[in-house]
Recover the amino acids of this structure.
């Protein structure tokens, strides 16, 4: 294998508009080659110092790996042991068998044992084999890009835990309506999920309570393994047999490890030349993308092992015609080659366009220009740079046009033209860069796993919020333009207005109206706040947010599901009016012909438990998340909070337990307790309790939630009418604790000297 160049810039003869410019443009090329040299990787597995074993059995061992003392860098030592079954030696990292090593990709592949649990019908007992791998003492990390956690079984839930990482789970189910399919691993009989980035330890566990006897009867075994992405192909026979294991109850799969040198970045490692691993004169350093440490590559035009002195050798491109074409005179130079047309012709010899020169009475002009060019070297060099920049600019424009087309930009422009009065603009990348001072970190308003929000100032001095997302699903790209038209028509006083987008980048950017007073989350939970938030204000925030969500569910066309309702996605404007945001933060995906839902991963503490079971987002999922926001307003606590020094609590679980045990007062915010409006608080709490029903169909709609909050707000705003308790009881002939006048819609307040009646007018 040979080194692959990272693009064509600066390689070969640069053809000019005039034939006589060829020789001097060739000189420009040579100079630019030095200026624009790029790093490329070498796939050659050069061995280490003299006397070191280059192989263990059939596996090549390139330095910095090694078997014998003095033949490896710290942490890269291997064992070479005889295999009793085959009689061929095999390399091991500790006790784990090594498959192969790649210097080019900085990866190693190993065998990983499969974890399993099986039901023994004869004894009605369970047998387990749970696996783990620990590379905390080695410079290896499990590749998050090349591995997936795979689980096979019916009604099987398995967890993968990394060191100091929250567990990730994968659940596969089986039912009569959804049958497993060969080759499909999407949750029916088989599921796959990604792993956290940069982990070097993992362990597998099963949820033993998920299966029932019916499932165990036809699916006796469940499996879980971290394995290479392309290794596994699901077969339905795995559900009824133990084909994934051998006769001894073992099975294994390949897994990919990323590796790096040390735990320092290049700029630090290069200071100590004794320990610096990039030994070759023609090597360069770059930082690892999957954790600490760095890696080495041979420079462009060289190949070999960059970890060895003289390990990177010059490539003779002139002998490799297939990889480095030249239809003329080829001259090898260190790190590159020159390909020129034969004497008397001009053109591009690499492309095979050399042609004979026309008869020209002024051919002596070539000589004159050559003499002038020799005295104008700096000017020609500048010209070469300009030409290169122009070409790169054109290339960038083509890329922007491709992104714009891919994201449906033309469709969006047509829709904007057809809908008169639609206040929506398609911005250029340059406009948004200028508005944010090239996305200066001082302009950051907030951010998370999906992207970063910047404050921008447009040319008309109009402030906006610009969301720069990190990723976009390939399925969303085709529908992006259509979805922007839908979102741009959302018009509600309590929904953040989407003003426009930028589509000439790989991941489109969204432009929203700027909301100045932060989020409801910061208002509730800011410990430095000196003034308290009254119950009236909390009720108003809840009502405005509920009305916005009800609008998205019921009045938008088509209806829109938010999918990530939380207090940090509710913004406050200059007058402290609530505005729901991020309803289009991820792209919209069609659920059917009439409804769209936001593609989300959700936020811990707000996630609908029914969504976790079914992976199906509904309008009742938003209702559940809004119920958690109501709890934050009532209690002043976060969705996930800490009761003691280390004990983590779920606010929704704590609230439901408190309601069941009549301990609501213990959870309430002290400021609410001081307002002595406990009956109103009780009604709000009961509304939150209905929103948090486990079954989505038992929850109210967002329209019903908004109506209930509006009724409670009107009760709070109207003055109390003082009546004699005895007269009211005689009039309605009911005890005071149960008085309800259906005609006037009035409710009594128990345990007071006088009866306060709240009436909704």
């Amino acid at each position: 294998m040979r080194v692959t160049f990272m693009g064509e810039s600066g390689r070969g003869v640069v053809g000019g508009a005039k034939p006589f410019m060829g020789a001097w443009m060739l000189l420009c090329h040579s100079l630019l080659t030095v200026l624009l040299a790029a790093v490329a990787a070498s796939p050659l597995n050069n061995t280490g110092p003299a006397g070191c074993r280059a192989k263990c059995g059939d596996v090549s061992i390139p330095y910095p790996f090694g078997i014998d003392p003095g033949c490896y860098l710290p942490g890269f030592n291997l064992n070479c042991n005889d295999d009793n079954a085959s009689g061929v030696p095999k390399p091991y990292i500790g006790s784990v068998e090594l498959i192969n090593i790649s210097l080019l990709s900085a990866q190693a592949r190993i065998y990983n044992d499969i974890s399993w649990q099986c039901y023994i019908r004869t004894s009605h007992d369970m047998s387990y084999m749970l696996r783990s791998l620990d590379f905390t003492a080695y410079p290896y990390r499990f590749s998050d890009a090349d591995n997936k956690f795979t689980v096979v079984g019916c009604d099987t839930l398995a967890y993968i835990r990394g060191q100091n990482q929250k567990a990730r789970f994968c659940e596969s189910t089986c039912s009569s309506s959804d049958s497993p399919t060969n080759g499909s691993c999407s949750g029916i009989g088989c599921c796959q999920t990604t792993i956290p980035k940069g982990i070097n330890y993992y362990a597998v566990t099963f949820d033993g309570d998920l299966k029932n006897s019916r499932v165990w009867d036809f699916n006796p075994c469940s499996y879980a393994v971290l394995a290479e992405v392309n290794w596994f192909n699901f077969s339905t026979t795995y559900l009824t047999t133990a084909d994934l294991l051998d006769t001894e109850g073992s099975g294994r799969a390949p897994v990919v490890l990323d590796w790096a040198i040390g735990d320092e970045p290049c700029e630090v490692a290069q200071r100590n030349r004794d320990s610096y691993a990039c030994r070759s004169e023609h090597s360069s350093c770059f930082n690892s993308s999957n954790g600490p440490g760095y890696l080495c590559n041979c420079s462009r035009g060289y190949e070999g092992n960059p970890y060895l002195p003289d390990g990177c050798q010059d490539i003779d491109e002139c002998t490799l015609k297939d990889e480095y074409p030249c239809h003329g005179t080829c001259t090898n130079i260190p790190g590159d080659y020159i390909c020129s047309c034969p004497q008397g012709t001009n053109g591009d010899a690499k492309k095979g366009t050399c042609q004979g020169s026309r008869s020209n009475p002024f051919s002596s002009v070539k000589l004159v220009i050559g003499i002038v060019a020799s005295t104008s070297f700096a000017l020609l060099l500048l010209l070469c740079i300009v030409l290169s920049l122009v070409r790169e600019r054109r290339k960038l424009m083509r890329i922007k046009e491709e992104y714009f087309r891919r994201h449906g930009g033309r469709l969006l422009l047509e829709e904007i033209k057809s809908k008169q009065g639609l206040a929506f603009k398609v911005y250029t990348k340059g406009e948004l860069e200028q508005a944010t001072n090239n996305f200066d970190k001082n302009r950051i308003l907030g951010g998370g796993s999906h992207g970063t929000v910047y404050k921008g100032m447009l040319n008309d001095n109009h402030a906006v919020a610009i969301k720069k997302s990190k990723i976009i699903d390939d399925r969303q790209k085709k529908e992006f333009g259509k979805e922007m038209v839908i979102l741009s028509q959302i018009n509600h006083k309590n929904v953040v207005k989407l003003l426009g987008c930028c589509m000439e980048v790989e991941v489109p950017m969204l432009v929203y109206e700027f909301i100045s007073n932060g989020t409801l989350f910061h208002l509730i939970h800011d410990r430095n706040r000196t003034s308290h938030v009254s119950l009236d204000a909390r009720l108003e925030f809840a009502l405005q947010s509920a009305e916005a969500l009800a609008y998205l569910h019921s009045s938008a066309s088509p209806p829109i599901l938010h999918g990530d309702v939380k207090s940090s996605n509710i913004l406050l404007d200059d007058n402290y009016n609530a505005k729901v945001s991020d309803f289009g933060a991820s792209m919209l995906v069609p659920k059917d012909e009439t409804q769209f839902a936001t593609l989300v991963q959700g936020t811990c503490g707000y996630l609908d438990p029914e969504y976790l079971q079914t992976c199906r987002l509904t309008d009742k999922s938003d209702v559940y998340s809004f119920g958690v926001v109501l709890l934050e307003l009532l209690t002043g606590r976060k969705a996930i909070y800490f009761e003691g020094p280390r004990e983590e609590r779920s606010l929704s679980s704590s609230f439901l337990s408190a309601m069941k045990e009549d301990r609501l007062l213990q959870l309430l915010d002290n400021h609410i307790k001081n307002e002595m409006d406990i009956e109103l608080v009780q009604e709000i709490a009961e509304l939150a309790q209905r929103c948090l029903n486990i079954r989505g169909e038992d929850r109210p709609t967002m329209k019903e939630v908004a109506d209930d909050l509006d009724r409670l707000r009107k009760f709070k705003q109207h003055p109390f009418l003082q009546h004699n308790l005895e007269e009211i009881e005689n009039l309605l002939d009911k005890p005071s604790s149960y008085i309800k006048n259906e005609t006037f819609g009035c409710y009594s307040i128990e345990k007071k000297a006088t009866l306060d009646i709240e009436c909704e007018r």
Notes: Residues 377-406 form the longest helix (30 residues). Residues 419 and 700 are 35 Å apart (CA to CA). The first strand starts at residue 55 and ends at 56. The two ends are 83 Å apart (CA to CA).
